[in-house]
Design goal:
With about 675 residues, this protein is mostly helical. The protein has a domain of about 90 residues. Helices cover about 65% and strands about 0% of the residues. The longest helix has 18 residues. About 45% of the residues are buried. About 5% of the residues have low confidence.
Amino acid sequence: MFTGIDEVDWASLRHAYGSARDVPGWLRGLASADAAERQTALDGMYGTVHHEGNVYDSTLACVPFLFSLAAREAVPERGCIVELLVSIGAESGDAHAREAVRADGEVFVSLLGDPDPGVRRAAAGAVVRFVDDPARVLGLLRQRIPVERDGRVLLALTEAVGVFVRRYPAPAAAVDLLAAQSAPPHDPGLRLAALGQLALGVPGELPADLVPTAVRLLRERSARRARLPDRVPERDAGDTLVGRLRRLRPSDEEGARLLRTLHTALGDRTGDRITLLTGQLTSPDPVDRGNAVWMAAVLFRGWRAGFAGPVALVGSQLGTEEEWLREAAVSVLSELFGLAAPAADDLHALVISRPDLWTHRWERGSPTVGGALKALARSGDRRAVPVLAQVLAGPVVPGGLGDEIAHLGPAAAPLAATLRHRLGRIPLDSPAADARAAHLLTALTAIGDVDAVPEVLRLLTGAPGGLGARDRVAGQAAGALDALGAAGRAAPVLRTLLHTRHAAAAAGALWSADGDAPAVLPVLVRELAQGEPGARRLAARQLARMGPAARAALPELRRAAASGQAGQRTLAACALWHVGGDPEPVLPVFRAAWSDSPGTRGPIARCLAAMGPAGAALRDLVNAELAAPRRHTARAGGQGGHAIPEDEALLRTLRTCQEVPAGPAASS
């Protein structure tokens, strides 16, 4: 197996973390009789030699030895080795790696009949990907399917036929094979797999009642699973990367994959996907419902549709006895913000019945707001306020509590006095003062609590000797005073910030206080030209607020709109409009950024709404976005916690743009 391994100069080869001198040990570990050692070795291979799917020179050097291991029946768990080879050759996208694996593709052919079902399962997809004779490949699959008795291998063979259908043109025999497997007398799981592969490769061959058929097959499959004897619990997978991934897999990973394939194939057909999810979320089997919750999350994050029905069904999982299912539903609902409203009653019932879930403490970490309470507050439901009041009155304020309170806006006014009290008691010379103050400021600003001005001023004046939070949250404090209409009371201290990294925030607050353009314009122009990226963006926003009073900044705004990152150019162009009132230099910047950087669409839409008919030349972008079935945050790769509300806000703004009649300025 390891002939020649010591002749390779591993020390001169590289992997993700430097020299590959440790790779021979992992290769030998893959053949160990000890399961823990094999797992550690596989962990090492995925974690360094094939880190995040990358290929290095050491990865290519491993390929011949991996093939030797895969072909040796005495080596345990060879299916994992075949999967690693497939990942290196097919999933990495590296041409050299693909050729290296293809060179030994005949090994995969020999493994199709291996005694180990795990090896046969992995080899099925490998043959399609690395053996280049289509007729022979299809023949091998057709020969294997009738004699295979392992259900999981049969599913892998069906998926391999699906890959074949997508890879080669007009494979009529392969399509017929899938069609046959999608019908009786095959078992429900295999029929689901075949339907999914047909949907991916040849949707024209699908039955008209695809979704009802899929739901019925899912129920039949689940009923069969329920009649099976309890499975023997797996041995502890160990504290390794691969072990942790195995523990996180759903208990019915096979079922999850079957339904994910169908959802992927349905793509933008959100109506069909919602119907499919409804069937999944109402299944008698909690495992089916758990899989559906995570598939619902993918749909919510990536697509736009009327989601009230599936959101309510996700909410109905909160009353389940299965803790894992409840936690999954909470996790998904906490990402939805206002879209979680159909589940608000279920969220409230859970919050009221389980005070132990109001906060959560991570291992070796500070307490944070519990998921159900967070989701209820983010949905804007006023019933969260009394519970938040109890949490706020506790001995320790959970991290980020103020940020969640802010989602309630003025409805959280009953919490203002306690928030002020907490803010006023923060020791300003504490290293944690900035973090503790920041989220409380966010809440008080969202509530609009003008009575909090003394506590906010305290952050700016700091502790005796100039210590405290002033240098860390001064910018946010200045913005809070501005928003609360109290910047005038802080004018002297705000002026002292005009030569700090908080200059743009201070200048904007001073402008609101006294409208003294000559005093703040040089500061904002300086920050726009020379500041850090965050300061440049804020300076552009402040200049936009000033409008025509900032005409002296037009040359610098034109320069900023023509160079730099898309986000900076967009904000500078928006300020150009507000200050100069000329759409001609603005609209080309917006059009280019809209296409190249989807993350800029929110600020562009807000500016277009302010421009009215002057922005009508970009009405085509507005109409196309409103008609698009996918979220702009999904197209931008945005999977952060605020991706959904950002997209919903974009849609609301664009609808106001669409309502503006196109005037004479449309031809600009």
